[in-house]
What does this fold into?
Amino acid sequence: MRALQKTLAIVAFLVLAPQTLRHAYMLWLEPRGSVLDKYDQPVKDEISASSSLDELLRRYDSVHKQADKAREELSREGKSLAYNEAFQFEPYKSERLLKEAVQEWEKRSKEIHALRLYWLAGCVFLVLGLLSYRKLNRWFGLTLLIAAFSEFIYWTSPTFLGDTREFDRLLGYKLALSAVSLVLLITVIWLLHIFAENREPSS
It folds into this structure.
């Protein structure tokens, strides 16, 4: 058991430590600008500046009404809607970008909710695992500890870059919980004396 514990502890550390560092880099140090930003539409700046879903929805509602009016005018003139939308003319481009931003925000909100829920579930496994390891059965306790750190690692693992502040919120949660998971791992290693050379071999 001791060799297995060491192997699992090393693997967990090798995952949690680099991903915590990666989250910190992406949140605070990674350059996000581009030399081409000055050619982008102002709507992208509005999306980045939005601090809530309601704010994005207000922007989308306004542009959506403009796009509907433009579609009605084109329809009265007998022109093709597909032609204008295919080449991303205004206000269709702004409407599309804002719609995608709203959908991205909602997706990230769901991810944050799942992250908090499953990370707390991992904490429950961790407590039960430590108690079982000390009081009941070491193998059963180790199984629960593996389940706990599997939850920690999976739900704090890297995600794809987004364009709204909701991504920064998600990344902030992942950074904080990944760092806490790393501390919990070190604590478990210390409590169970996993790397202690003078420890008696476990059966």
Q: What stands out?
A: Residues 2-191 form one domain. The mean pLDDT is 83. The longest helix spans residues 92-136. The CA atoms of residues 125 and 147 lie 7 Å apart.
